[in-house]
Amino acid sequence: MSQFLGSTVLLVLKNNKRFQGKIDAVDNKVASLSSVVDLNTETRQSIPDQKIPGRDIAKLEVLSLCDKVLKNNESKKNKNKKKSKAKKDDNDIAWNGDDKLNEEFDFQSNLDKFDKESVFRELSAKDNIDPNLRLAGHNKKVNYDHNEMVVKKEVDTWDNQQSIPTPIAPSRSSTSTFPHLQRQPSIRQPGFGIQLTDGANLLPSCSPVQLLEMERITVDEYKVPIEMLLENVAINVSSIVIKSLGGYARFDQTNHNLPPLILFLVGNNRSGARVLSVGRRLVNIGARCVAILTNTNSDELIDSVKRQSTIFTKFGGRLVYDINQLTVLLDSLQSPLEFVVDGLQGYDNHLDDLFGVELTTSNSLIEWVNQQYVNVLSLDIPSGLEPSSAHINSENAFLQSKFIVSVGLPLNGVLNAYKEGGVLTPGDCIHYLVDLSVPRAIFKKGSLRKFDRDWFEDKGFIELFIKQTI
């Protein structure tokens, strides 16, 4: 306030009293007024000089400046002509404590006056919030147990499931409750021919009789056990299944996801025995494998199917005998069905050769699998197609396979499925040829000579491609 010495001011006190006077002196934050006029009465009488403490002043209004202040202001205005205007007017000028502006503030002494412990004790006493409702960071543990902060593996009833015992063979007149799939053959353009090729060289295809003769010579003349041929198929086909499911990482025991669930369609023939041996190998690396047998009479099962089904269950696979049992088992598991391996028919059999329950179960399985969103792998040819001509069976239903795996040699029926009037178009399927490991000398005999070539290089299966020929 010292800058207003000699100026006439209007003071409004905190008690709403108003005085007008001239500031003569400012001493220890007390303003001395002379020529004081009391504005609180209508008469506005002059009163004696007043001394008013700064703490009682609510508002100060300058009515007229003294000559000295005017001269100082005029000189400052000339010097600061190009500078911005002041942000506050005279009514907002701070006057309190102007005589101690240069004193250094003592932070430490003021901090010492603050009792933190008592303040925090008071806050804690008034804190009624449930600790469980606070942010997770407030309750974060420093050390965790070995089973904490770990994604738990999914657990379902698979380990408690048992293979269903072989039921008493039902009547041959039993019928399935599933309607049969009606599929019309795809329309082909005239003169459309397809052959198998491995790139530059065209590969010959064989008839079912030639393939059967190749295996007969291997077993009868070269004394190769049937179990050895089954194992060769199991090793190579299981490698294709593993590749199709994403590799061995899917079967790693450290993987917190549930292992793949695979269904095997087992006919009472050599293809049925082969897919059971494939299932046994996949069970052994951690896959969940379920096999459904179309023939429920154990006395009618061929030796290889009976033996492989026993080994399959001992390794941990599950056996069921009809679609109802299959759907109940699948519904009890948390993992979805991911893959189907088809061994209903193969190259030496045809569904039209079946009858009774075995036929109706096979046809119902074909329809049910076609309605599922899963990839299907068929051995030799999709079930429902005649192995040589690729004609659809009498029920007009066949498996819509994504993978077709030829065992030993590719069949003529695979070619015929792509020809005019056939049921497949290029790109529908992925084709593989697996090594059966038959003696090389077999291809020196008779009608098998055209197959004498290097089919495989460093692994037991190769991919085949479809090529349109002129």
From TrEMBL:
<feature type="region of interest" description="Disordered">
    <location>
        <begin position="161"/>
        <end position="185"/>
    </location>
</feature>
<keyword id="KW-0963">Cytoplasm</keyword>
<feature type="domain" description="Sm">
    <location>
        <begin position="1"/>
        <end position="66"/>
    </location>
</feature>
<dbReference type="Pfam" id="PF03853">
    <property type="entry name" value="YjeF_N"/>
</dbReference>
<feature type="region of interest" description="Disordered">
    <location>
        <begin position="74"/>
        <end position="95"/>
    </location>
</feature>
<feature type="domain" description="DFDF">
    <location>
        <begin position="93"/>
        <end position="129"/>
    </location>
</feature>
<dbReference type="InterPro" id="IPR047575">
    <property type="entry name" value="Sm"/>
</dbReference>
<protein>
    <recommendedName>
        <fullName>Enhancer of mRNA-decapping protein 3</fullName>
    </recommendedName>
</protein>
<dbReference type="GO" id="GO:1900153">
    <property type="term" value="P:positive regulation of nuclear-transcribed mRNA catabolic process, deadenylation-dependent decay"/>
</dbReference>
<comment type="similarity">
    <text>Belongs to the EDC3 family.</text>
</comment>
<dbReference type="InterPro" id="IPR025762">
    <property type="entry name" value="DFDF"/>
</dbReference>
<dbReference type="InterPro" id="IPR004443">
    <property type="entry name" value="YjeF_N_dom"/>
</dbReference>
<feature type="domain" description="YjeF N-terminal">
    <location>
        <begin position="211"/>
        <end position="444"/>
    </location>
</feature>
<dbReference type="GO" id="GO:0033962">
    <property type="term" value="P:P-body assembly"/>
</dbReference>
<dbReference type="GO" id="GO:0031087">
    <property type="term" value="P:deadenylation-independent decapping of nuclear-transcribed mRNA"/>
</dbReference>
<dbReference type="GO" id="GO:0000932">
    <property type="term" value="C:P-body"/>
</dbReference>
<dbReference type="InterPro" id="IPR019050">
    <property type="entry name" value="FDF_dom"/>
</dbReference>
<dbReference type="GO" id="GO:0005634">
    <property type="term" value="C:nucleus"/>
</dbReference>
<dbReference type="InterPro" id="IPR036652">
    <property type="entry name" value="YjeF_N_dom_sf"/>
</dbReference>
<dbReference type="GO" id="GO:0042149">
    <property type="term" value="P:cellular response to glucose starvation"/>
</dbReference>
<dbReference type="Pfam" id="PF09532">
    <property type="entry name" value="FDF"/>
</dbReference>
<dbReference type="GO" id="GO:0003729">
    <property type="term" value="F:mRNA binding"/>
</dbReference>
